[in-house]
Write a structure and sequence with these properties.
By secondary structure, this protein is α+β, with helices and mostly antiparallel strands. The chain is built from ten helices and 14 strands. The longest helix has 11 residues.
């Protein structure tokens, strides 16, 4: 009689096989290979009557998953990011190279070379924007990674925070160098410039309304005018214009949007944006970028998505792109374009 000796990789069954499982895996084989029936493997264990793990979790203070100070420092001096760049336009050290307007309920895109800056500006009234970023060199492969940015920094971004790109590149795409709102967090836990919400879209609206006509007050208007007027659709049309496709549109940075999670139900909520005429958010491009932004059809988002009875007031937003007059300024302060992540990418294979 033979006994089945099970080896998994290079480890002995004595070390890794469950005791109850061992008894079912040895026996007479009669010269044939013995197999173990999956039904005899131990499955779900009964839940504990009391658990110290629950108590441990409730009593332990929150532990940030990522320590920002462990990440690579910015590719330039502190003086550059905190002193020179935030004031460059006002001091005349940066010059305007392009300006454009994003019409209400629409989207526009623009290119920003590495080392240039761009602003999104409130020009006429309170309005939020949904922004996407792609690497100009390979936009279908490297894009803004909002959830990783949220994990590294916070649910809402402000001056000094960086926008990180997707795997396998994972590197800073841009750094926020100016934010005139500087809202912080209010008593409801709301902040501005969130990386929580994905963007309004026609698919969710379809489930919420179960019809193509989102706004019943506009029954005489063409269906496509209202149902397709979402940030996702706006960004999709612009992506196609730039040689991309719908699948290249990704989760956004909600510029000027005031949001949070309710304390009782932990649901995503919005408040009227605190943005006022003259406010702006400003970015430094850490690599060559293609940027696109949609002026949200929800205006300042004081009206809930899918609300068919209220018509949001929408405004255009301005975009300005600047370059530094001194072409050597960045280099003199140690700046360089953000390099691709150094991980070799073999994943243990």
């Amino acid at each position: 009689m033979n006994h089945l000796l099970l080896w998994i990789d290079t480890y002995s069954s004595e070390n890794i096989i469950h005791p109850q499982l061992k008894t079912t895996m040895s026996g007479e084989t009669n010269g044939t290979t013995s197999t173990v029936s999956p039904t005899k493997r131990p499955r779900t264990l009964p839940p504990p009557k009391s658990s110290k793990r629950r108590e441990l979790a409730r009593k332990t203070k929150p532990i940030p998953c990522y320590k920002v100070e462990q990440l690579p420092p910015k590719f330039g001096s502190t003086e550059l990011y905190e002193g020179i760049l935030p004031k460059a336009v006002e001091t005349g050290d940066a010059e305007l190279v392009e300006s454009l307007t994003i019409p209400p309920k629409s989207a526009m895109s623009w290119k920003v070379p590495a080392g240039h800056m761009w602003r999104i500006i409130c020009t006429e009234g309170p309005q939020v924007a949904d922004m996407n970023c792609w690497s100009l060199d390979h936009p279908s492969k490297e894009r803004f990674y909002s959830s990783k940015t949220r994990q590294i920094h916070a649910t809402h971004l402000s001056k000094g925070d960086r926008l990180w790109s997707s795997f396998p590149y994972l590197r800073p795409m841009a750094t926020i160098v100016g934010d005139t709102i500087d809202y912080g967090f209010d008593e409801d836990g709301a902040g501005v410039h969130d990386v929580i919400g994905s963007r309004c879209d026609p698919y969710t609206h379809h489930y919420m309304t179960m019809c193509e006509q989102v706004n019943k007050n506009k029954e005489s208007a063409p269906t496509t005018t209202w149902f397709n007027c979402t940030c996702h659709s706006n960004l999709t049309r612009r992506a196609v214009h730039d040689g991309l496709q719908e699948s290249d549109v990704h989760d956004v940075l909600n510029v000027f949007m005031c949001t949070g999670f309710t304390k009782d139900t932990h649901q995503y909520f919005t408040k009227p944006s605190p943005v006022d005429v003259g406010d702006y958010i400003e970015f430094l491009a850490e690599i060559d970028l293609l940027v696109s932004a949609s002026t949200c059809p929800q205006g300042d988002v004081s009206v809930a998505c899918g609300d068919e009875d209220l018509e949001p007031k929408c405004y255009p937003l301005g975009v300005e792109i600047y370059k530094l007059k001194n072409p050597n300024l960045l280099r003199e302060h140690g700046w360089k374009p953000s390099p691709i992540n150094g991980y070799e990418g073999n994943h243990g294979m």
